[in-house]
Protein 1
Amino acid sequence: MHTYQSAPVETTVEAPTSEMRLLSKGKVFWNLTKVSINNQTPNVLVKLNPSSYSSKASDGGDKEEPPKQKLLRYPVLPLNDTLERFLLTAQPHLTPKEFEKQKEITQQFKDKEGDKLQGLLEEVGKREKNWLAQRWLTTAYLKYRDPVTVYISPGMTFPYQKFKDMRDYVDYTAKVIYGLGEFKGIVDAGQIPIVKMGKNELDNSQFGKVFGTCRIPIRGTDRIVYNPCSNYIVVIYKNHFYKLCLYDKDGCLLSAKSLAKQLDEIMAAENDFGVPYGILTTDNRDNWAEAYEQLAKTPENCEALNTIQKALFTVSLDQCIDVEPEQQATQLILGLIHGNGSKINSGNRWMDKTIQLVVNPNGNVGFTYEHSPAEGQPIAMMMDYVVKKMGEDKNYGSSGSSETGGKPQKISFAKPNPCVDQWIFYAKRNIDKLVHDLECNVLKFKCYGKDYIKKQKLGPDSFVQMALQLAFYKMHKVPGAQYESAHLRIFENGRTETIRSCSNESLAFCKAMTEGKASVKEKAALLREAVVGHQKYARLALQGLGVDRHLLGLKMMAQENGLPIPEFYSSPGYTKSMHFRVSTSQVATTYDAFMGYGPATDDGYAACYNPRDQDIIVAITSWSYNFETNPDKFAKALEAAFLEMQDVLDKDPQDNKPKSKL
């Protein structure tokens, strides 16, 4: 999300320094993208001075362009290097006999198809500054046919709120809307600071791709539309849609009081629930595409769809649901991920919008964001910015324009025909099944946080990754292929590379911790070696030197040139190491907030974590229909892993610095 790692460095930004270029498209995978890895890139919590941004809407007029960023070309790696690293990452998942066979298959691939495909990819790399960007967008997202709900779109929580009454609820929502408008002013002014990793600048273009952006369902392959110069938002209440102008006639951002007045008018206007058109957006992409075609047959619906798509973002004013205190965190993230079903709030959404602000009178607040155009950094930074501003100033939002901006306009759909009714029925059924199938446990581990880990001279991110490895091994008795995303922002339009967290070092550590033969000193040494091994691979991934994107590029060359897919891609080492049973991401914030999303495999988990100074928050999900996985048991195993690792380090505090093979 924002800068995902440990040691925050504050920087004051006075002047525009970054470029906000919009591309025709831009998107990523279901896994959340890690913007930085612990101890590789400083975690920058930026102080954006109020005097340095404009509260006016973009007018599209002439203005000084921010300086062009100096970004690297995305490389085509040497094939030998990639295959050597691949073998090391595949080895933990194979028996010695299987590994020998895998080495033969890999060598044959290199000698035969691999060299030819490498040559084709190198030619593409010469023509395109980032050969991966559009291919990744299309393959990982736009062609992906499962629902964006759960599978693609994560939820990002705000700290839990205790609303005194509905007045407090509306006023809070208005202030958050105001804050998002203010943040957009910072983006439009090019004042998101440029951060460097070593000597290399990190690409800031994704900040310009989230406001006014929407995914459009099309059978086979979706598309994305960008409307960054829009001047309104869409409010969804009881399944009704309203267009709410965010600026006055002079283009100045409306005050929170003016926004609250419009929210009051919307809520007063609706006593009954409307047709849940929004629930169509939660369905399988091809189902939604079919329904979309039916909806778009009438001019009234075309206008409604167009208005929603062009909004800067949507705001879902949800129906209050009672939540037991011990279930608050779990229900918070589930409400953001899927809306709790067709009879609760799943219809009060438009899942194709990149930014959806969701506010429930029960105090559950956060974002649901569609992952296609950008990684999570802009979304998480928005949350940090708004929460910080509201915490510092009780009168936050009062400096905006006192004009009304006009009355909110209802967005009307035509009466649904029998075909649309049928698609709504299917969407309700499917989202209810998805809600039933997804299980969640939010672990709030309070015994220690990243301060303790850093005192052990270990990287917090890598430490948590090894705890996840240990928890999985303790539960399932096998090493779990574990995905962690590393940003590629040193490259123009860079998205992510995979950090393969399961390694020979992590497996040795897990065996030592579970087999009862190793001494405390041996366990501590293996723990440190596993953490260092992960850090080294993470550094490689951040430099674009991982395994997965290069291998994907070679496979795409076969597909694009009508060549057969090599046997290598169905080999045990490749398929087992690519079956990511643990899908992870670090989304760091100092607030009591976190992100969550659905698992990548039927027999696996998603684990998104926020390591704070004194605690660690982990949102864990898995599927109820799989009897091997259980988020409650995994949370207990993870908590036990954290405690066992602490016990080992406390008993052997020596600063061992083993070298990793990676």
Protein 2
Amino acid sequence: MANSVSSSPSFLALFIVFSLHQLSRGQFLRGPSYSKFVVNATEMPIEDYYDYVIVGGGTAGCPLAATLSENFRVLVLERGGLPYTSPDLMSQDGFLATLTETDAYDSPVQTFTSEDGVANARGRVLGGSSAVNAGFYSRADKDFYEKSGMKWDLHIVNQSYEWVERAVVFRPQLQNWQSAVRDGLLEAGVHPYRGFSLNHEMGTKIGGSTFDSTGQRHTAADLLGYAKASNIRVAVHASVERILLAPTSSLSRSKQGAIGVVYRDRIGLYHHAMVRENGEVILSAGAIGTPQLLLLSGIGPRPYLSSWGIPVVHHLPYVGQFLYDNPRNGISIVSPISLEHSLIQVVGITNLGAYIEAASNIVPFQSPARSVFIRAPTLPLYLTVATLMEKIIGPLSIGSLQLASTDIRVNPLVRFNYFADPVDLERCVSGMRKVGDVLRSRPMEEFKFREWLGNHREFRFVGPTMPGNQSSDAQMADFCRRTVSTIWHYHGGCAMGKVVDSDHRVLGIDSLRVVDGSIFNISPGTNPQATLMMLGRYFGIKLTKDRMR
């Protein structure tokens, strides 16, 4: 039959799309090569011994584990599940759904609201925040290495970046919104144009992405593909509740050392992961999780721990202090033309203490509840929303973390004190003025709507609009305070020199180190994930060399 369904071009196209979807879905379900040594914590022995126990299979923990496994027996304990079982999480198009479809204990994203009233999020999945972020990849700035308090071998730093980049970094292809933002930044004076670059360089550039050309996400968990499979185990849904500490000498009980950890699986059974002679526990649970676990293990300010009834093992007053979050401010517009779904691909690195970035997302439109004027559509309606934002460097404003519960699964109380330091506010004002310059550039004209009356064109904003008088410091400062949000780059809480030494050892405790963003006193470059993945590889190399001497 000439008109049979099987020969219909539209059916053939639908069949191809369906087949590709099933192949993609099958890839998620089969899992990557590292899945052969990943197990649910319920399958783990009640007690076992390792050279290194790494708490947190996140952005730094995965490359650290892969590197150490080349020579040592390693266990990674991750509180979340597997990334590749969630198509939304593994897809660029699923970014917003992953951030918004959350629950208290199991979703890949754990949401929380800081005491400042700003909504925030943590990764709770193998790969950590690298599995739920916007995918932008850019190396740290030179100031970071000078101000971090760490001793860096820049040759090994570059080797470590390259090791990461071979596995998980791609060059994004710009479409209309990102191209317009690039051109708008250049017209607004953010020079020179650097093209595609993974380095932190003043001017406008296209950065790397952990999304490949098909829109599939790659994460720090992919770096486990480098691991020596016979030397590593990764337990997911393993909630570490306490670090086990014991006197390091029979002659003196004052000095304590880590001998293992206690973790609980999904059905509530407790397990002990112990370290062998000369072994160590390494905390890579992030800027929220690492100080929280130290406090719950009795390492922190003595009066504060006593007020919670937590036995004090070691008085360390700055655990949970010197916590930072880079404030984000920006505007969003509805576009009159169709836009791609894009996450951060272009950045303007200014000399104003601020970075300019952009994204565009397709979001569902919901009519007002019980509206008598708008009839509910039979099919879902979608809007394309484009966002232009700035993030300040640093920051200088200092926050802190306190326990909300002795249950490790409950997020601590966090206050970042956005704009408490006036320099941060000045940088936001300068950054938002530059956003205003970009909006006034010629490449932005096509994103304006033509007004019904008259021949002029205007942006249609979603949410706050730019102040009418952008030359007014007071109006711009008010905008910054009123619209502050996060870009999820919080760091600190275990500051180097105050909680850990330059070799990442927790002060006063043997066999316990911290390797994650909680040791940072400044955010590295435009986006921290590149530096955190590098750090895991870098410190794994350093630790191996030190131990093999």
Protein 3
Amino acid sequence: MAVLLRALCLLPFLPHVSFGQFLPFFGGWFGGNNGGSAVSYSDSSNWELVSKDSGVSAMHLILMPKNNKAIMFDATVFGPSKIQFPDGENCRLVPDSKTYQTDCWAHAVEYDIETAEVRPLKVWTNPWCSSGGLAADGTLVGTGGWKEGGKSVRLLSGCATCDWKDIPDALAGNRWYATQQILPDGSFFVIGGRRTFTYEFLSPQGTGDLKSFTFDFLRETTDLAENNLYPFVHLSPDGNLFIFANNRSILFNPTTQKILREFPVLPGGSRNYPASGMSVLLPLNLQDGNAEAEVLVCGGAKPEAFGLAENKTFLPALEDCGRIDIKNPNSDWKIETMPSRRVMGDMLILPTGDVLMINGAEKGTSAWEAADVPNLTPVLYSPEEPVNERFKELEPSSIPRMYHSTSAVLPDGKILVAGSNTNPDYKFKGVKYPTEMRVEKFSPPYLDPSLQGLKPEILLEYSQAALTYGESFKVKVKFSNDWEVDRTDMKVTMYAPPFTTHGYSMNQRLLILETSSVGRTFLGFYDIVATAPPSGTVAPPGYYLLYVVHRGVPSTGMWVQIQ
């Protein structure tokens, strides 16, 4: 009776508290551990058009941590974009122009993910088909490109007025269609490029010693169509690099610079540009202390697809996936079949640990006018489900997203989708697939309004954003309906935002953290104590989006930095 009277006395001071939140005050009978299990949501995904004009074609895309803006950029040689620098300011001198021609069109923008406003950015050297990733301090480090941009390093920080800093001739090799991977100490490994069978290292600040190292594996895996460009590189939690090119893969030690083993060939066809399959390192689950490391490779094209596409013969894309344990020296590929064929798609890891396949085509290959039959239907892949229950088709888009399309996971769990230009310049009429300037957001099923009572809200001011390797930290969350809270079905995930271009999201990584306690403090408020990743081999230093996932529904992400 005393407890009841005390609760009633508090009612005038709690006008914002729902009945479901207030019930736990009565001894915890109605909440806590009895809220139910993870929901099995139906396909309630949806699309929304958020901008009719991104300013530039989004060939490359990355989400920046300091200002929560997306960076989109294109090549500098495809003619005028749709956004100019104001009043002719900030124009660039066109390289190799004998008449000192200037270019006053922007080829990069900073895109506001909330308002869709764009700010033009000045790219000095050509970043066409370049690579990139975030440094530990949140700076975007871009590498390579074409012609005068082939050996450039470009830096962009997240301040409100910042622009690109371009360092020409900072690389040892021409890195056109190369891959960039962050290493455990925050430095970068840059590998490949057209007819560039080498790799090199950059410091965490993006500087190098202009020294490259021959890598015969790239020479061995090339073919007439060069189906080993943009090789897939994933950092294993043991510090080694899984490198996949064409249809072959190896485990490489970047410290000793030795190949440790070669994995079996993945059958079916070619997987790298221009065959352009998709690949991710599946989520690393740190809850048991010994995370498995599995790589998923899906889609692509037959080796001859590129040559035939030049004559407008578009072969069906591949429809299979290969999955392999890269820490097991005796592992082999386990083959699965997607619901549809896909080439040039993007593969993104969602905050829940599921994998989203989006964009691309069902026939052809990467290159200008080299594909047909847009694949408009996203597919959800749930790696923890039984083998025959992992794929699920979601709501299709109405906008073709083929060559040079991109996508990114946003803090609120939506997917930003932009780009698609199958033409050698900006063309809006007279072609089957015009240059696409519209920007969409895709909402996965966990954003169904009927599930929002399960969604945690991270209280930023009471949660720790600066993490130290191996140490515990606290995240405070709030629920609008405590009645449905299940403390046994709550996890904390950390997501490294990737640099996405040409169907490959470099440096993408999701970690499922060890949690030691989930305690209710008061009226729908919970404290979660989690343990930060143990080292840079598991989580390279830098910024991550931290999510709390409750019964399959993620919170809005909070930016954290680990070092």
